[in-house]
Design a protein that fits this description.
By secondary structure, the protein is mainly β. The protein has one domain. About 10% of the residues lie in helices and about 50% in strands. The chain is built from two helices and 16 strands. Strands 1, 2, 3, 4, 5, 6, 7, 8, 9, 10, 13, 14, 15 and 16 form a 14-stranded mixed sheet that branches. It has a two-stranded antiparallel ribbon with strand order 11-12. A hairpin with a 3-residue loop joins strand 9 and strand 10. It is globular.
Length: about 210
Amino acid sequence: MIPWELKMKEFTNCNCAYGCPCQFNALPTYGDCRAIASFEVSEGHFGDVDMAGVKAIGILSWPGAIHEGNGSVEAIVDESASEAQKEAILKIMTGQETEPMATMFSVFASTMTTVHDPVFAPIDLEIDVESRTAVVNVPGLIESSGEPIRNPVTGETHQARIDIPHGFEYLIAEMGAGTSTSSGAIKMELSDSYGQFAHLHLTNSGPVRKAA
């Protein structure tokens, strides 16, 4: 197994209500699961390949709950990545060179029936985990944005977190709201739904366990 380790910023927008029942082993809000997950590597490696600066997006869809399978996925990798970086991030995103079920990539890959060919395109991506804001743009394919949840009475920003010490993705995630559209192989429109902002630190064997 090729050793790898990545530190990333993540913004994910799915169709569930704020909080997302999946985070609590419950069924999705509307019965199905549709999501756009965006990542930017701040530092890391795949074997001897430096992965810093790599940006990637997963467009994912399941007709029911994730664990029920029959999912579809389309990966987008920033075209500025080197060929070695592209190959490495796609292996990670498809659960390769990873202990079984150790990361969310490996878990999700095990539920997929349809895997569309990856797309290499320019990705404009800005994620600020602490302020709970994000802007994602892939010309002609994806527009996605994230913002804080707001108090419905005062309009002030509201902060809430989910802490999953033994999860396969993050240790702590900031909750927000997201709005997204995709027009590639997997089309979707999400509006003012679950937004997740997190710092990820993953290896072949899963998240690095430390104080978040």
